[in-house]
Amino acid sequence: MKQYARIFKYLKAYKGKIFLYFLFTLLSIIFSIVSIGMLMPFLQLIFLDGKGVTTASSNPVIQFVNDFLNHAVSANGKIYTLGIICLLMVSFIILKNLFLYLSYYVLNPLKNRVVNQLREDLYDKVLRLPIGFFNEKRKGDLMSRMTSDVGEVENSVVGTLEGWIRDPMTILVTLVVLLLISAQLTLFILILIPLLGLVIGRITRSLKKHSQEVSTKYGETLSTLDETLGGLRVIKAFNIEQLLRARFFKTNDELLKAKNKISYRRDLASPLSEVLGVILFTAVLYYGGRLVLNNQLLEASAFLGFLGIFYNLINPAKALSTSFSNMRKGAAAINRIEEILTTPITVDDNPSGKKIHSFNHSIEFRNVQFAYADAVILKNINLTIQKGQTIALVGSSGAGKSTLADLVPRFHDVTGGEVLIDGINIKDYSLPAVRSLMSIVTQEAILFNDTIANNIAIGQENASKEDIIKAAKIANADDFITKKENGYESNIGDRGNKLSGGEKQRITIARAVLKNPPILVLDEATSSLDTESERLVQDAINNMMQNRTSIVIAHRLSTIRHADEIIVLQKGEIVERGTHEELLSQNGFYKKLVDMQEVK
Question: How far, in Å, CA of 525 to CA of 439, rounded?
Fold first, then answer.
């Protein structure tokens, strides 16, 4: 039950409702058993001769029934007593179902809240996990865990939550009543019941392993689908439809086989438990019949009542075995979810961190080292960026430019040395406070399926329409926005697919301008644009960079010629630094990069 600890943790917050569920369920069980138990006085009445009830019995239950009938028949006669018994049976059935409904009324919202809380915790953890975590995980697999695995937990674990409580309670209360009627016959049942559990347990044992396989294959199909939808142009251009089709079909077939294995075992549990239940019932029928025929302290009416109550035991036992089977199946989904929920947060907020409201002096990298897994990305970085400076980072692919820039907003934390803002280690600041000082524009324009205005104003809830338009003008975006049918209220589609690359990038620049931060991080913001769009975006960037401290990652060296200092990185180390002219005069690695791009 260890893997279900999180579910129980959620339930702790609803102790009062769980108590009510226990109470209503217990009352429902009691009235159910009593309604079936009314068969005993009914049968006793039918079997009575004209003189009265049979002799006294040593069994307290049977004696209570005899006393009730003696009094009722002598006072009102058989016909009236028969009517009372039937009326009581109906009343008890009504009360049983009333309390059964009340138990569902209490429990169902509780189950929904548990699943809702699980989904929220999972999403919250995804937001808090460092960016490096997602470099190792397939997007489809993460989506699978947040959708199908949560759905599996909802159906297989939380969905059978009432069975965890109601069925064991039903079995326990029923056994107590059966013991009162006939201890000998009940002990016979208790010897046979474990056999049912052993057989069902062997069938369900492999469900967890196959459920894990299903979840993994489902994640792979989602990943393939995501890659297909995102790369349709390349797929069609290179005629690899057949390759992608074969890959998807292969994974989908493996998913089908794994699901069939689960279905075979899960579906076998219910009919097999029913067959075993009938065998058990028949054995009780035979053994109890012998007790009655041999006059061994069990009357015929009591035995028939015993059988009626015992039959009430079979359905909860079957349901409990099904619940156990579902829990085994859901355990794999819980494990996959727990893998994310228990992933350590390597970059987390400092609850007692200092607040920083302005950037006053400098950003300093002091003996910075950064290693990711077994790979060393940065080593011995010493760099100071004074307020108002523009620093450019250049170098070949994999040199560590983006990683170095990512250390400033703490997308990663250094593994050695420290990064300081105004002389204080950024880990000593509140994480939201550090990031509030910065705006970031990346090579890929990240936009949301919303209006242009809302995309520009994202994170700035109090921004006015005038502020949004002013930011758009600085970003050279107002002209194309106003030409659209709905202007700033135009929806840009999924990931901004209704806009061109240059338009998308200018909106992200407008977003950065509206935030009005003292620090800018520009990660190859123009490298994927055509010449005309690049000029417009570069003009917008130049407008935005005025009177701000900027860290620019440059692919096209022509865009950083006027930087205050150019930092040349190679294999994670600073190999050259200086202005454009100084670096050219050194005739080193930077000069080679410039020559390759034929910068004039």
Answer: 13
